[in-house]
């Protein structure tokens, strides 16, 4: 059983070591401690002997099998009538015999036995008495193993706990397995054949192609009955398939398969992680789209409101312009001057004052009424905007669960960020100051206490009404002030055209101001509310940005590792 070492082997080992190093970084990047430890152990064992893990129930004869297989004068694994192998025993080569206790569950036995240069033995606790912690340790050896030796009691190789453990080994890691029926000396030959065939059929049913089943007797082997002990066949299998010329390459191939398996587990886990990311990106896009649509809807309502206000403004000012033109005719002014002297009819000055008051009253009454109606529609639209976003947050889809095998930490982190978003948005909606704007509502300290302490959705209508009414008052006041200046000293007809022209110019300026200020202020307000709503997603957006980067990075890492594993596997030429 000479060790075969050549330059090609060293090169392959070096390449595989680099690949597994990158795989280890990948497990660290995803924060999965168990997989990181598994890959670290795998990397440490690249240059170690072929590892045999011996599993089976208590009293199946595992320790006796190991002692007989190693064919030493010393008892390597303790054998006793009562179950006593309650720790994992790792039997490895050493120049001197010694035992090192790693912890209460694991000890290393060093022996100067030649075969241990090629094979390391791991003797595990019985599958029918194994504790949770023991099983956890045992499972850490399984991923790094090169061959699983499944030891059954010849008389009953169908015990459930052993085959349950087999399912874990075979389904999760697809390891090479051989089956040993120990204590065959206690069986009649015909019954033994039945059990051998039974194990083969059972293994075939569970997915093992051409299962290797060996019947042995450690007792016969150790008494020197080599021809009948069955160990010759086991050793021949080991020499041909493990310690022969292909053994080191087979070990490398096994390392490749284990690395590939871990990579596949991460890749499979990425499916759910990416699906969650895609759902969250779609959710975020939907939120932005909803905000955009609601902004457009609200802006359209502003356009309709402004259009309606301007139509009213045009009608009222047109009527007053006609009345002004007619009243400023020479004969009208002359008539008013004479009749006011001899009767109680209003003079020209009184008529002008009344005209101004009527203009102010009609504009205020009609514009404010239309403003109230229009503003309520806009307020409802903004309220709907916030409510729709709140509903979307509450119904956001969770695909990646907190019990996910690989990415439970990511699921927990996302759930935490989403919960913070839900809580923050509820608080946002209930705080009226979130619906105020320092620039647009400079006099907000003058608001009544009832408005200031109301919920955000309730105060919108009142706030918008207040600001738009202010615009109307400013416009009508400016027009009337200008009219008052123009009318002052009007006494001759030659000023009529100038007065009417300047009156029309002021009406035109007022119209432009009304349109610009209402449209600008309301649309700016709507935009600001939209941006405030969207700002609640800051942490969620940061999570998505990090996920975008991480998912792409992990995909690139996995693709690189897979391609390099494929390449080196082809170059092994086994």
Descriptive notes:
- The chain is an alpha/beta fold and 574 residues long.
- The chain has two domains: 50-244, 3-Layer(aba) Sandwich (Rossmann fold); 282-547, no CATH class.
- The protein has 17 helices and eight strands.
- An eight-stranded mixed beta sheet has the order 3-4-2-5-1-6-7-8, with helices on both faces.
- The longest helix is centred in the middle third of the chain and has 81 residues, at 247-327.
- The protein is rod-shaped.
Major sheet: order of its strands? 3-4-2-5-1-6-7-8
User: Whole-number radius of gyration?
Assistant: 45 Å
Major sheet summary line: 8 strands, mixed
Uncertain parts: 1-6, 440-468, 489-493
Number of strands: 8
Distance between the termini: 19 Å
**Shape summary:** rod-shaped
Oligomeric state of the chains? single chain
Q: Which H/E pattern describes the elements?
A: HHEHEEEEHEHEHEHHHHHHHHHHH
Helix content: 55-70%
- Mean pLDDT across residues: 79
The share of residues in extended strands comes to 5-15%
Number of helices: 17
Number of domains: 2
Structural class: alpha/beta
């Amino acid at each position: 059983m000479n060790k075969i070492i050549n330059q090609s082997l060293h090169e392959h080992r070096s390449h595989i070591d680099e690949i597994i190093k990158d795989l280890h970084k990948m497990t660290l990047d995803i924060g999965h401690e168990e997989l990181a430890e598994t890959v670290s152990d795998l990397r440490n064992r690249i240059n170690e002997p072929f590892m045999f893990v011996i599993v089976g129930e208590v009293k199946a004869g595992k320790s006796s099998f190991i002692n007989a297989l190693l064919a030493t004068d010393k008892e390597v694994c303790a054998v006793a009538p009562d179950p006593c192998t309650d720790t994992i025993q790792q039997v490895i080569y050493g120049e001197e015999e010694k035992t090192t206790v790693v912890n209460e569950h694991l000890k290393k036995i060093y022996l100067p036995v030649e075969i241990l240069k090629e094979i390391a033995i791991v003797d595990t606790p019985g599958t029918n008495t194994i504790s949770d912690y023991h099983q956890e340790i045992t499972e850490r050896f399984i991923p790094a193993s090169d061959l699983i030796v499944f030891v059954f009691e010849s008389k009953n190789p169908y015990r459930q706990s052993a085959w349950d453990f087999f399912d874990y080994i075979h389904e999760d890691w697809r390891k090479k397995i051989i089956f040993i029926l120990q204590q065959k000396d206690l069986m009649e030959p015909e019954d033994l054949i039945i059990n051998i065939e039974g194990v083969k059929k059972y293994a075939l049913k569970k997915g093992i192609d051409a299962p290797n089943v060996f019947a042995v007797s450690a007792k016969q082997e150790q008494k020197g009955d080599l021809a009948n002990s069955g160990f010759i066949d086991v050793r021949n299998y080991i020499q041909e398939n493990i310690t022969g010329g292909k053994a080191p390459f087979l070990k490398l191939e096994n390392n490749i398969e284990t690395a590939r398996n871990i990579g596949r587990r991460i890749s499979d886990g990425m499916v759910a992680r990416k699906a969650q990311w895609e759902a969250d990106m779609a959710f975020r896009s939907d939120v932005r789209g909803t905000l955009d649509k609601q902004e457009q809807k609200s802006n359209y309502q502003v356009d309709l409101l402004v259009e309606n206000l301007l139509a009213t403004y045009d009608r009222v000012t047109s009527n007053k312009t006609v009345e002004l033109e007619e009243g400023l005719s020479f004969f009208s002014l002359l008539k008013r001057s004479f009749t006011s002297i001899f009767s109680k009819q209003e003079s020209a000055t009184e008529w002008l004052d009344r005209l101004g008051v009527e203009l102010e009253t009609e504009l205020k009454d009609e514009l404010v009424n239309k403003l109230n109606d229009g503003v309520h529609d806009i307020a409802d639209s903004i309220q709907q905007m916030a409510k729709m976003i709140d509903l979307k947050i509450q119904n956001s889809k969770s695909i990646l669960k907190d019990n996910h095998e690989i990415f439970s930490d990511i699921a927990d982190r996302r759930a935490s960020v989403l919960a913070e978003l839900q809580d923050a948005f509820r608080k946002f909606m209930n705080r009226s100051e979130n619906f105020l704007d320092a620039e647009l509502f400079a006099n907000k300290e003058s608001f009544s206490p009832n408005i200031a302490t109301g919920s955000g959705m309730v105060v919108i209508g009142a706030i918008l009404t207040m600001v738009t009414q202010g615009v109307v008052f400013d416009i009508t006041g400016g027009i009337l002030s200008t009219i008052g200046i123009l009318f002052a000293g009007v006494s001759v007809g030659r000023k009529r055209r100038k007065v009417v022209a300047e009156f029309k110019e002021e009406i035109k300026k007022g119209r432009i101001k009304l349109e610009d200020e209402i449209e600008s202020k309301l649309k700016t307000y709507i935009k600001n509310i939209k941006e405030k709503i969207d700002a609640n997603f800051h942490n969620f957006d940061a999570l998505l940005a990090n996920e975008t980067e991480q998912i792409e990075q992990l995909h690139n890492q996995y693709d690189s590792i897979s391609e390099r594993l494929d390449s080196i596997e082809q170059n092994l030429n086994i």
